[in-house]
Amino acid sequence: MASLLALLDISVAKDRRMFRRRAILHFSEVHFTEVKTVDIDPHGINVMHDSPMTIGEHCSIAFNVTVDRQLMPLRLKTTVISCVLAGQQGFRIYLTFAKHLGEAERRHVRKIINLDVY
Questions:
Q1: 91: which residues sit within 8 A by CB, 6+ positions away?
Q2: Could you report the per-residue pLDDT of 16-41, keeping only the tens digit for each?
Q3: Domains contained in the chain, CATH given
Q4: Taking a C-beta distance cutoff of 8 angstroms, is the pair 33, 79 a contact?
């Protein structure tokens, strides 16, 4: 139970930054849904969706970022670790990044958090 609470506490990390844009969650090549991102931290990303998601579900999130003034698509493997009803806005879902993200993907996340994205 303590480890689950520690995971959930990640979403309030001090390095969390507001990060709002449309994104696509991919569950398979044919099953996907659109979400809105809320914020991002070194460990994961919060999104809003109309429907709840199952804790432990694996998916990848895809969105565009601007790096060095160029639009670049980014797709990161994630796991759902929390899903909370946020009133009429829908469900706030915290997705933790896969532990085996490549160095390039981790560098892009760090750039977003450090506000190096234009």
A1: 48, 49, 50, 51, 52, 53, 83, 84, 85
A2: 889 999 999 999 888 999 999 999 99
A3: 2-113 (2.40.10.220)
A4: no
